[in-house]
């Protein structure tokens, strides 16, 4: 579809939607999905453009003898994944996927990347064709020989336009309303601006760019680098070493983007919140850093630490490193990405964490 056709289609959809307030559905109720639900639930109360009730699809589970949906709807708190933060009463938890999403105009995807295929297949043909999506999922598609972004999967399977939101956004800090920034990448600028209206607050500031692929790729790849930073701290290395890991990791992110998205990458995008902002935050305080630091210190497995530290939620850094490793291996490019390669080998092949430094001592950036 040409840019002109995309803009025309977007305008036509906007005119259709303008007749009634836009209905919003959030897909996913983990730590990040719940934090975003707090923002959206408060915003729809103030903005007439959006319907005052927000449906949040929740994968039903039992917590302390009660259904999680009942807890959210009655106590207005996700006690398992975002404890201590009240959700607005405008947010309603719905355990049935099609019931939650079936009449939505705006779909906010905040589900773990490993479930994206199944969820999208269940939604296919069951959401309005006029709907627009935005992905908050930080990862790349698994099971493909070539790189595919999560937004591509949603776009192909659900049949809607998809923007992406990535940034230096630790969920608990967002829920606490600490000042932060984020980046929306959208192939149709007007759609990105619409989601900015839905999501921006005085303390959650958003920039919209048209380099959507790079925005999304940054959100995925920075998790691999954050694992490296966590390993470095867990092994007791100093600030100089950690700075080198972050810099070399950023260079691998840029190189990867330029190889797989030739002609579609703007260096300026790496200077947005989705780029260096998210990378720095993730390497100092994100969950990938925390778990990797514990991995280096305790000798526990990643799976054990996920259960202990994340309530069983999957860590995205190791998973993304595996997907990226297999793509690079198929293309014969592993030598260009010694940090990405080391993280995969440490997490999945039993390579000692300290050998990450050996990989970096011979990094192509130093030649």
Describe this structure in words.
This protein is of the alpha/beta class and about 375 residues long. Helices cover about 50% and strands about 15% of the residues. The strands form two sheets. Strands 5-2-1-6-7-8-9-10 form an eight-stranded mixed beta sheet, with helices on both faces. It has a two-stranded antiparallel ribbon with strand order 3-4. Helix 6 (about 150-160) links the parallel strand 7 and strand 8.
Strand order of the largest sheet: 5-2-1-6-7-8-9-10
Note the total helix count: 16
Q: Which spans of ≥5 residues are poorly predicted at pLDDT below 50?
A: none
Mean pLDDT: 93
Tell me the β content.
5-15%
SS content category:
alpha/beta
Helix content: 40-55%
Shape: globular
Largest sheet: 8 strands, mixed
Radius of gyration: 20 Å
The ordered H/E elements are HEHEEEHEHEHEHEHEHEHHHHHHHH
**DSSP E strands, number:** 10
Ends: how far apart?
Answer: 43 Å
Using brief descriptors, characterize the structure shown.
single chain; about 375 residues; alpha/beta; 8-stranded mixed beta sheet; two-stranded antiparallel sheet; 16 helices; about 15% strand; globular
Short description:
The protein is of the alpha/beta class.
Helices and strands in order, then pairings?
Blueprint lengths: L2 H15 L4 E6 L3 H13 L6 E8 L4 E2 L2 E2 H8 L15 E4 L2 H5 L4 E4 L6 H8 L8 E4 L14 H9 L2 E6 L4 H5 L4 E6 L3 H11 L4 E6 L2 H23 L4 H22 L12 H12 L2 H12 L3 H8 L6 H16 L6 H11 L6 H7 L6
Parallel strand pairs: 1-2, 1-6, 2-5, 6-7, 7-8, 9-10
Antiparallel strand pairs: 3-4, 8-9
């Amino acid at each position: 579809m040409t840019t002109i056709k995309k803009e025309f289609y977007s305008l036509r959809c906007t005119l259709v939607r303008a007749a009634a307030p836009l209905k919003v559905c959030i897909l996913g109720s983990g730590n990040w999905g719940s934090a975003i639900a707090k923002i959206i639930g408060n915003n729809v109360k103030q903005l007439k453009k959006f319907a005052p009730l927000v449906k949040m699809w929740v994968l039903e589970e039992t917590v302390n003898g009660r259904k999680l949906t009942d807890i959210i709807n009655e106590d207005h708190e996700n006690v398992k994944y975002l404890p201590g933060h009240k959700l607005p009463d405008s947010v309603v938890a719905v355990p049935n996927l099609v019931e939650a999403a079936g009449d939505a105009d705006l779909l906010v995807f905040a589900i773990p990347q490993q479930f994206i295929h199944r969820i999208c297949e269940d939604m296919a043909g069951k959401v309005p064709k006029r709907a627009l999506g935005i992905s908050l999922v930080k990862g790349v598609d698994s099971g493909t020989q070539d790189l595919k972004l999560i937004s591509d999967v949603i776009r192909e399977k659900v049949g809607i336009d998809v923007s992406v939101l990535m940034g230096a956004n630790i969920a608990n800090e967002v829920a606490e309303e600490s000042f932060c920034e984020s980046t929306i990448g959208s192939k149709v600028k007007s759609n990105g601006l619409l989601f900015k209206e839905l999501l921006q607050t005085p303390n959650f500031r958003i920039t919209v760019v048209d380099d959507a692929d790079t925005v999304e790729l940054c959100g995925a790849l920075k998790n691999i680098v954050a694992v490296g930073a966590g390993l470095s701290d867990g092994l007791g290395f100093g600030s100089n070493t950690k700075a080198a890991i972050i810099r070399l990791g950023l260079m691998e992110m840029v190189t990867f983007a330029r190889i797989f998205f030739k002609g579609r990458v703007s260096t300026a995008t790496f200077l947005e919140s989705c780029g260096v902002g998210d990378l720095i935050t993730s390497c100092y305080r994100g969950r990938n850093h925390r778990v990797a630091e514990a991995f280096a210190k305790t000798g526990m497995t990643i799976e054990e630490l996920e259960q202990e530290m994340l309530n069983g939620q999957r860590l995205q850094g190791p998973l993304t490193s595996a997907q990226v490793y297999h793509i690079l291996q198929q293309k014969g490019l592993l030598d260009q990405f010694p940090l990405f390669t080391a993280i995969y080998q440490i997490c999945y092949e039993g390579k000692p964490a300290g050998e990450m430094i050996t990989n970096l001592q011979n990094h192509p950036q130093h030649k």
